[in-house]
Design a protein that fits this description.
Distance between the termini: 38 Å
Strand content: 15-25%
Radius of gyration: 14 Å
Number of helices: 5
Largest sheet: 5 strands, mixed
Helix content: 40-55%
């Protein structure tokens, strides 16, 4: 199940000191095209979000930046940067775990896909494995806060 794969990737990212976010992209037949995790800290790259890395990998795999028959599964609602890249890639569907009440740009804080600035209509399903995704993030942040204090 792709949602569970994204959760496993998120755990791996968290174990490596990254904010635990994982992303998986499949094509219309269910074939795995990409599975990536956050790598901002390790790569020293502000754009190394799981979604961006997965989009790049899927496009390279398909040899086409049009990912219009693909689905992205991600544990956390994408930020504005990732939402923009998702629209540029013309993804068919985004399935995410938990809303991001600080930077969510798919539905929660701002809604880039449904805005006048969007050149693509994106299907979105939120709240898949929501409690598991939320718990993973809350546990990671709580552990990080304890280490700092």
């Amino acid at each position: 199940m792709d949602e569970l794969s994204a959760l496993e990737l998120a755990k791996s990212a968290g174990d490596a000191g990254e904010i635990p976010v994982g992303a998986v992209i499949i094509d219309s037949t269910g074939k795995l095209l990409a599975q990536r995790e956050n790598r901002k800290e390790r790569d020293k790259d502000p754009t190394a979000h799981a979604e961006i890395l997965a989009l790049k990998t899927a496009a390279t795999t398909l040899q086409n930046w049009h990912l219009n028959e693909c689905t992205l599964y991600v544990t956390l609602e994408p930020c504005p940067m990732c939402a923009g890249a998702i629209l540029q890639a013309r993804l068919r569907l985004v399935v995410y775990g938990v809303d991001d009440t600080k930077t969510g740009a798919i539905r929660t804080v701002i809604n880039i896909p449904d805005s006048a600035a969007s050149n693509h209509r994106l299907q979105v399903i939120g709240g898949i494995l929501e409690s598991a995704c939320r718990q993973q993030l809350q546990t990671w942040f709580a552990t990080r806060r304890r280490k700092v204090n």
